[in-house]
């Protein structure tokens, strides 16, 4: 019995030790954070503010970074922490990069949520509007008002100012700037229709313009065996996969792949957006009759087999684009950075072209437009060098066009804390410039002095590497696919062409951020919406369940939220 | 005296288990306080504002709450039943095999899926039941229109249960086979001499012989009735089947981790724990009553 008792005592002792060890850790952490916070303010005001100045002594910053495990663009010996981008930061600013965490693109948001919930934050990371608000309320963020004032480079300030104050408004809480906003090209938020032109030609069809013509093309793609393999295995119009949405919404207004954005907006339906109702008050687009009409159209198309049968269930709708089974899908201009480059490598005859379709009944193109800013760099409260992330971004913007020509692999996504800074019309201007150079009406040198358009010099210089004669025909056979400039040039000359050649009568959301009640209720309202709409389209619920949805939505907090939105807007 | 020396090793062997339990089960228990707070990660568990039962009120207003509890129970109970009967029947059939080599190889093959994770098997399942997958092609031969299996809310629970039983029955069979070998062969010989047929032997010797094992497994399974299998469902489901396939664990994961509604997720998790505690107590009482099996 004695032995037993001793061992029990030992076990209990061990537990106590463990407990003590745990609480000890927590204690010291808090203390050190507290003192760090005080020193920060001193150093920040003592130093001369130089947006590009290197630190005399190397400092370390631990960031949360997205690392794509399937990305093979890095060269032998390079790692996410050892490549030309990270080394550039080290050489120019004397900042050592560390990873507080890494996550694949699909899991990054989750990892950020986890870091917020456990209050175990990296020194800096990129977050979206929802997380930003959460972190501000949890008092986890450093006040960057002074940092932005003193350290943001003039070029970046100029671009942020070009958003008419929207970018700064989104990160200002109680008069303080709590994050560094990005500013993206509006092209990210315009979802055009990508169509296999070689299939159109094969079947003797013209590119569609109206919704009816789009349906006819989809029907032909499904029924008339456009790939000529004798099997009934083609998809007319791709649908969203499990990581994409039926349509972009006011919180995530850009880069929705394989959605039905265009079909909704051709009905003048803007689900997921806050728009002005008939009485001038804000209404939520998803609850309007136009949305019901659009859902009816989609429901018919799905029932007739014109839309991918496996929409909503697929892991990645891009796979069937690459393997040549899909005839049409919706996406922004940069789809060559998505599945298209792979698709044309797989099959050099896959002539993917982009069109501003479908048009509304008046023949106008009326897509929804995005917010100029949607991602933010945040800095942990108590980090000793809150200006370091700003310097890293200054450095990126000043040197972005040089990276492509440096030794070493890896795409621009490897730059730590990379935010996109682009004038709203960056892509449209680039497209026009490249066309003029191709046509010979202008020389590449004419575009050298446009610092805000940071990639344009490179674009006009390299366009002849990939575009073959005739220069005014964009079909895939007149391109050198193997050139390193192909993806970028194809995104500009083909992907951006629709909004250059068509007049865009776009619709903006009244707000692009959350209101207070949304924090608690929005998730469940959104789930209700997503589930109902998906089921209506796929035919597992009647079209009239839309009316029930509108009622439920209003009851479960929608009315209250609408009032809040009205307050914000007015 | 020797026996006491022995005991030391046992305690030492228990130690890692206890440490694990302490770190991963006891310490996190303090986190349930989040359910009663307006939790603010910046201020932590100790300093967040206390709001009482606010979150629980909201939880019971939500349409989702009854649905996820029903789904969890429905899927879990079906799994318990399936995982009881299928391995039992299979073990009985295997037991009748005379050819030992064949018996062994079948046994090995059927329990292989047990060792694969749902991440892999989930992908395999999705492919097999895809719109143009093998199952639909087979159905096509008989003139059946292709079915989007994992988009059908009415089929989803059965796919989940079926695939779980398929994955686990080989492993559970082993337990029954062990119980079967425990039956005294003399009983079979004696009944053989008395002229009993195979079916009679099965009914009067084999089944009573493994009754205790079967009842014990069934009763202990009750403790799992609120665990419908997070990793399986997480890898198979999509918004189309939330109405019948979303279980407490997946819902808590999405609400708490993806959507930052910590309080709500904790409250639902707490409710699950309370219900689970009651069910485990009942099942252990039943286990004691029917099979004299005691843990405490």
Automatic annotation (TrEMBL), chain A:
Pfam families: SBP_bac_1. It comes from the Bacteria. Keywords: Signal. Residues 1-20 form the signal peptide. InterPro entries: Bact_solute-bd_prot1 (IPR050490), SBP (IPR006059). Residues 27-50 have a biased composition (Acidic residues). CDD domains: PBP2_AlgQ_like_1. Residues 26-51 are annotated as: Disordered. This is Putative aldouronate transport system substrate-binding protein. It comes from Saliterribacillus persicus. The lineage of its organism: Bacteria, Bacillati, Bacillota, Bacilli, Bacillales.
UniProtKB/TrEMBL annotation, chain B:
It is a multi-pass membrane protein. GO terms for cellular component: plasma membrane. The keyword Transmembrane helix applies. One of its GO terms (biological process) is transmembrane transport. Keywords: Cell membrane, Membrane, Transmembrane, Transmembrane helix, Transport. InterPro entries: MetI-like, MetI-like_sf, UgpAE/MalFG_permease. Residues 69-283 form the ABC transmembrane type-1 domain. The chain crosses the membrane at residues 12-36, 67-94, 115-133, 169-188, 209-230, 264-287. Belongs to the binding-protein-dependent transport system permease family. PANTHER family: BLL4140 PROTEIN. This is Putative aldouronate transport system permease protein.
């Amino acid at each position: 019995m004695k032995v037993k008792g001793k061992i029990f005592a030992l076990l209990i002792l061990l537990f106590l030790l463990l407990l003590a060890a745990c609480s000890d850790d927590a204690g010291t952490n808090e203390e050190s954070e507290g003192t760090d916070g005080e020193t920060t303010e001193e150093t920040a005001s003592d130093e001369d503010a130089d947006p590009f100045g290197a630190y005399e002594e190397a400092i370390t910053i631990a960031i949360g970074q997205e690392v794509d495990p399937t990305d093979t663009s890095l060269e032998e010996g390079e790692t996410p922490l050892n490549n030309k981008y990270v080394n550039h930061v080290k050489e120019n600013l004397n900042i050592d990069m560390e990873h507080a965490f890494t996550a694949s693109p699909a899991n990054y948001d989750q990892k950020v949520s986890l870091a917020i919930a456990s209050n175990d934050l990296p020194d800096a990371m990129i977050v979206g509007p929802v997380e930003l608000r959460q972190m501000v309320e949890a008092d986890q963020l450093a006040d960057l008002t002074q940092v932005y004032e003193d350290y943001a480079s003039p070029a970046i300030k100029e671009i942020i100012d070009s958003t008419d104050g929207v970018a700064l408004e989104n990160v200002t809480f109680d008069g303080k700037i709590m994050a560094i906003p990005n500013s993206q090209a509006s092209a990210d938020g315009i979802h055009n229709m990508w169509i296999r032109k070689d299939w159109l030609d094969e079947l003797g069809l013209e590119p569609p313009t109206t919704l009816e013509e789009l349906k006819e093309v989809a029907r032909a793609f499904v029924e008339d065996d456009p790939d000529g393999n004798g099997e009934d295995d083609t998809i007319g119009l791709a649908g969203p996969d499990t990581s994409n949405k039926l349509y972009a919404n006011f919180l995530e207004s850009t880069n929705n792949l394989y959605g039905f954005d265009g079909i909704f907006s051709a009905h003048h339906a803007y689900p997921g957006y806050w728009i002005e109702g008939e009485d001038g008050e804000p209404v939520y687009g998803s609850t309007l009759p136009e949305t019901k009409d659009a859902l009816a159209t989609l429901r018919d198309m799905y029932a007739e087999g014109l839309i991918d049968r496996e929409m909503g269930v697929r892991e990645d709708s891009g796979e069937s684009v690459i393997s040549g089974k899909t005839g049409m899908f919706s996406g922004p201009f940069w789809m060559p950075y998505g599945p298209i480059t792979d698709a044309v490598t797989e099959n050099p005859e896959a002539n993917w072209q982009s069109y501003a379709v479908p048009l509304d009944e008046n023949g106008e193109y009326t897509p929804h437009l995005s917010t100029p800013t949607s991602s933010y760099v945040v800095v942990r409260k108590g980090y000793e060098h809150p200006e370091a992330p700003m310097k890293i971004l200054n450095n990126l913007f000043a040197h972005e066009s040089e990276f492509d020509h440096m030794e070493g692999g890896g795409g621009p996504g490897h730059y730590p804390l990379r935010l996109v800074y682009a004038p709203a019309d960056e892509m449209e201007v680039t497209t026009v410039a490249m066309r003029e150079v191709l046509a010979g009406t202008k020389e590449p040198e004419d575009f050298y002095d446009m610092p805000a358009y940071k990639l344009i010099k490179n674009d006009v210089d390299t366009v002849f590497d990939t575009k073959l004669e005739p220069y005014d025909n964009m079909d895939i056979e007149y391109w050198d696919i193997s050139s390193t400039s192909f993806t970028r040039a194809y995104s500009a000359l083909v992907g951006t062409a629709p909004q250059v050649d068509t007049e865009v009568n776009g619709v903006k959301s009244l707000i692009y951020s959350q209101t207070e009640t949304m924090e608690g209720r929005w998730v469940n309202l959104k789930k209700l919406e997503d589930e109902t709409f998906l089921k209506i389209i796929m035919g597992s619920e009647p079209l009239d369940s839309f009316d029930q949805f509108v009622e439920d939505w209003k009851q479960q907090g929608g009315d209250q939220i609408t009032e809040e939105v009205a307050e914000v807007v007015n | 005296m020797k026996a006491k020396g022995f005991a030391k090793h046992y305690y030492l062997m228990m130690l890692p288990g206890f440490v694990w339990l302490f770190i991963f089960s006891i310490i996190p228990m303090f986190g349930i306080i989040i359910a009663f707070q307006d939790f603010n990660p910046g201020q932590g568990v100790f300093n967040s504002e206390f709001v009482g039962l606010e979150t629980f009120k909201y939880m019971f207003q939500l349409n989702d709450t009854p649905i996820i509890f029903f789904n969890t129970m429905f899927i879990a109970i079906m799994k318990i039943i399936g995982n009881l009967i299928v391995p039992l029947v299979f073990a009985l059939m295997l037991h009748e095999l005379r050819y030992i080599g064949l018996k062994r190889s079948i046994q090995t093959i059927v329990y292989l899926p047990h060792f694969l994770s749902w991440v892999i098997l989930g992908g395999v399942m999705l492919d097999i039941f895809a719109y143009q997958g093998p199952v639909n092609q087979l159905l096509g031969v008989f003139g059946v229109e292709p079915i989007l299996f994992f988009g059908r809310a009415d089929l989803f629970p059965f796919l989940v249960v079926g695939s779980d039983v398929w994955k686990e029955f080989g492993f559970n069979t082993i337990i029954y086979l062990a119980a079967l070998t425990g039956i005294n062969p003399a009983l079979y010989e004696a009944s053989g001499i008395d002229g009993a047929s195979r079916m009679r032997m099965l009914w009067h010797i084999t089944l009573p012989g493994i009754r205790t094992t079967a009842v014990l497994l069934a009763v202990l399974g009750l403790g799992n009735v609120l665990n419908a299998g997070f990793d399986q469902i997480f890898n198979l489901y999509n918004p189309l089947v939330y109405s019948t396939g979303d279980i407490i664990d997946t819902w808590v994961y999405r609400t708490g981790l993806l959507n930052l509604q910590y309080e709500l997720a904790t409250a639902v998790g707490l409710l699950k724990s309370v219900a689970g505690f009651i069910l485990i107590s009942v099942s252990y009482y039943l286990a004691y009553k029917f099979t004299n099996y005691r843990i405490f």
